[in-house]
Every structure is written in C-alpha cells, then in structure tokens.
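Quick one: structure for this chain?
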Amino acid sequence: MNKSRRLTFNSPVVLTFVIISFGAMVAGYLTAGLSNQLLFVTYHSSLASPMTYVRFFTHVLGHNGWSHFIGNMMYLLLLGPMLEEKYGSRALIEVILLTGLVTGLVNWFFFPGIALCGASGVVFAFIMMTSFTSFKEGEIPLTVILVAIIFIGQQVYEGLFVADNISNMAHIVGGIVGAVAGYLLNKKE
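Got it. Here's what it folds into:
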C-alpha cells in the first residue's frame, strides 16, 4: 500500500502569524526600516494619530533583525500548534491581540522613550499558557509555579542587571497575560 503524504496547514493562526511577521521583516529591509516605524513598532506617539492604536496591536509582528525574528518564530512554531489544537484558533487570536494591546499600552504609559517591537510578549504568553495545559480545577500544577518563578526571576534579574536591548517588561506582561488566559481557558473545561 502506498499512502501518499501531504502538507497540512495544521495551525492556521500560528502559521499566518509567522508568515505576516516574515513579510514585515522583508518590508522592513526593503523600506530601510520605514515600514517598521509606520506599522511594526510602538512608541510614545500622539494619541490623536489613529496609527498609534494600530501599532498597539501590530508591533508584535515586527522584529529587530533576523536573529530576533528566528528566535521568536521558533518558540511560536513549537508551542503554538499545541495551544491552537487545545484551545482553538479564536482563543489564540484573542491572546495574541490582548498581549499586543497590553504590552503596547504598558510601553506607551510607562516607557515613553522606548520603542517596542517583536513577538516576545506573545512567546512568553504561550510559554505560560503551555504550563497550564494539564491544569485541573482545584489543583495548582507545580510546573506552573516553577515556570512562573524561574521566568519572572530571570526577567527581573535581566531587567536590573543586564544591559541589552530586550524588553523584559514585554516578557513579564506577556507571561502574565498567558498565565491568566491559561487559567481561565482551562477553568472552562
């Protein structure tokens, strides 16, 4: 018996996110960063500009170079399909949008001199959501506590003592969004 194999678009939200992010990277290079400034980076711009509100969501699609892009996409491709299968495409879209909005707003209000781009907040939301996949009502999985302690501890340490161009705020806020989403989504089951 010869069973043919075919490619499947197994995780439409995650794969579409990766494709759009790749397009944003290419557009950034083709426009010498102008497309990033216009669409894929959030910063303290005027609230009178409609683009400020668009960028609160779209900044998660932009990345500051190929290594930043590849690192985030690898995690999304690793974690996302499992989460999309468990919670559904709609829930994943909502988590991505909420993470973008919350990290964008926190950045706008509390870090006015900092531009923010990248899917790191979404990655950490997915990491925390993944730790809730075996959650049962009335139980607190030890993995959730350990992931939260290690994750938040690392982000606080790096935020205080490591001078780099990484937004630890986006990681922490994304992790909080993911933890709340993971808890609420599992509570419904």
